Amino acid sequence: MAKVSALSDHTGYWLRLVSNAVSHAFARKVAGEQVTVAEWAFMRALHGGEGVAPSVLAGDMGMTRGAISKLADRLEAKGLVARTDNARDRRAHSLALTDAGRALVPRLAALADRNDAEFFGVLSREERHALERALAALVERRGLKGVPVD
Fold first, then answer.
1. Distance of CA 7 to the CA centre of its chain
2. Maximum Cα–Cα distance for the chain, whole Å?
3. How far is CA 92 from CA 12, 43, 48, 61, 67, in A?
4. 75 — phi, psi (to 5°)?
5. Tell me: the pLDDT tens digits for 54-105?
6. Which burial class, exposed, middle or buried, applies to 20 when counting CB atoms under 10 A from its CB (0-12, 13-18, 19+)?
7. Which residues are CB-contacts of 24 (< 8 A; sequence separation ≥ 6)?
């Protein structure tokens, strides 16, 4: 009978274990602000801009235009994002944060910072930098794109 590797024999197991814990804790934190992690990522992508076409946002975030449209609809209903029609092309529009959305982004960013500190603060500075370098190398060498939202 062939030897069957244990789950913990796989680097992916350890990455998923940590990722799930970090992601679920952050999801609980942003839920207190009545947004999801995907909505937070969407809002962060809009932060600092004057208005972005949904197709550009989809490319930047590595999402489909349909997914962007659904997120925009939800955030518009919450009063956090506004659509502006394009005067030159009636079929086109841009997305931008409302005043309420702009006010919320720094609070959500502080939650993200706190979540990071809670999870990765147990590592030494050198360990954390080594982990970040290793993960960045994997992202670059594998050509990974997009914003992780789930």
1. 27
2. 70
3. 41, 20, 21, 19, 17
4. -70, -30
5. 989 999 888 898 999 999 999 999 999 999 887 676 677 899 999 999 999 9
6. exposed
7. none
Positive or negative CA dihedral for 141, 143, 144, 147? Answer: positive
> Which of 109, 93, 92 minimizes the C-alpha distance to 48?
109
Those residues with Cβ within 8 angstroms of residue 74's Cβ, 6 or more apart along the chain or in another chain? 39
Residue 43, both tokens: 């809002």
The CATH code belonging to domain 11-142 is 1.10.10.10
Please give the structure tokens belonging to residue 132. 């970040």
What is the reported pTM? 0.86
pLDDT in tens, 135-150: 999 999 999 887 777 6
CA distance 144 to 138: 8
- Can you tell me the distance from the alpha carbon of 130 to that of 48, in angstroms, rounded to the nearest whole number? 30
